[in-house]
């Protein structure tokens, strides 16, 4: 599974799925300053078995960093903005699966 966004929520979902034996990969925005975040809102450390890919939706040159799977696989996009007071989770799988 590819999790788009390994921030506070995405890193925790990836860690939990990894502990269940799922193959998980995550993306992170390279421009995010993790150290500037309050410690509570920082992502958890992921084991080296979880590949992390630099990806920013607003930087098309980073799209080549996304992994290419030999088969269609599920993906999970997570977002959370405190300023908006909104959490969003989307689970999808390519059509035909």
Key attributes of the depicted protein:
single chain; alpha/beta; five-stranded mixed sheet; 5 strands; 25% strand; flat
Write up what this structure looks like.
The chain is α/β, with parallel strands linked by helices and 97 residues long. The chain has one helix at 8-19, and strands at residues 2-4, 25-28, 52-54, 75-81, 86-92. It has one domain. The protein is built from one helix and five strands. The chain is flat and about 40 Å long. The two termini are 14 Å apart.
Task: Give the neighbour order of strands across the main sheet.
Answer: 3-2-1-4-5
What count of domains describes the coordinates?
A: 1
Q: Please tally the β strands and state the result.
A: 5
**Which shape, going by the Cα principal axes?**
flat
Q: Which parts are unreliable, with pLDDT below 50 for 5 consecutive residues or more?
A: 82-97
Oligomer: single chain
Element pattern in H and E:
EHEEEE
Cα Rg: 14 Å
Estimate what percentage of residues fall within beta strands: 15-25%
What level of helicity do the residues show? 10-25%
What is this structure's SSE topology?
Elements: E1 2-4, H1 8-19, E2 25-28, E3 52-54, E4 75-81, E5 86-92
Parallel strand pairs: 1-2, 1-4, 2-3
Antiparallel strand pairs: 4-5
Summarize the structure.
The protein is built from 1 helix and 5 strands, in the order βαββββ. It is of the alpha/beta class.
């Amino acid at each position: 599974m590819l999790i788009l966004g390994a921030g506070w929520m995405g890193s925790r979902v990836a860690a939990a799925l990894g502990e269940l034996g799922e193959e998980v990969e995550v993306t992170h925005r390279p421009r995010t300053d993790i150290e500037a975040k309050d410690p509570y809102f920082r992502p958890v450390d992921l084991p080296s078995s979880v590949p992390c890919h630099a990806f920013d939706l607003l930087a098309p040159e980073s799209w080549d960093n996304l992994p290419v799977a030999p088969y269609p696989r599920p993906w999970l996009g997570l977002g959370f903005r405190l300023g908006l007071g909104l959490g969003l989770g989307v689970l999808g799988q390519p059509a035909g699966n």
